[in-house]
Amino acid sequence: MTTIDLTEDAFSAAITDHPIVLVDFWAAWCGPCRSFAPVFEAASAEHPNILFAKVDTEAQASLAAAAQITSIPTLMGFKDGVLVYSQPGALPAKALHELIGKIRDLDMDHVRAQIQESDPR
Fold first, then answer.
1. Where, if anywhere, are coiled coils annotated (predicted)?
2. Is the preceding peptide bond at 73 cis, omega within 30 degrees of 0?
3. I want to staple 95 with a disulfide (CB 3.0 to 4.6 A). Which of 40, 91, 100, 113 is the partner?
4. Which has the closest alpha carbon to 19: 76, 82, 113, 67?
5. Angle between helices 31-46 and 93-105 (to 10 degrees)
6. Can you tell me the distance from the alpha carbon of 121 to that of 114, in angstroms, rounded to the nearest whole number?
7. Whole-angstrom distance, CA of residue 68 vs CA of residue 35
């Protein structure tokens, strides 16, 4: 699967409609973003069962703000609609591959239980 461009209107559906989603927040003027783009694209070809999406922070400023993006590139990983990874910085191919494996291996029942325990309500 190739990467898709996400807009504010499509973001929620993309996250909830796919078991695993990786989102790259980027901008055209950002050198590290341009360096990470081919790594992200190659990983999308290697993992066709994962949705790889990109958010142009210039074109989708309100979405970037809602996601609290303060540095780019920022990579977010979602599993079963839950944000399980968020970190700024371009990853090398090996680190991205390892991250994908870790996200795949997550026990989401355990993750949800941890979230529930940390919720003060």
1. none
2. yes
3. 91
4. 82
5. 50
6. 14
7. 22
Neighbours of 79 (CB within 10 A): 20
pTM as predicted: 0.92
Which residues are designated catalytic?
30, 33
Give the structural domain span for 106: 4-118
Task: CATH number of the domain at 106, please.
Answer: 3.40.30.10
| Domains identified in the chain, total number | 1
- Tens digit of pLDDT at every position of the chain (121 positions): 578 999 999 999 999 999 999 999 999 999 999 999 999 999 999 999 999 999 999 999 999 999 999 999 999 999 999 999 999 999 999 999 999 999 999 999 999 898 888 876 6
Q: Please, which residues bridge with residue 79 across strands?
A: 20, 82
Phi, psi (deg, nearest 5) at residue 20? -130, 135
Quickly list H helices, 1-121.
8-17, 31-46, 61-66, 93-105, 108-118
3-state SS of the chain: helix, strand, coil percent to 5? 45, 25, 30
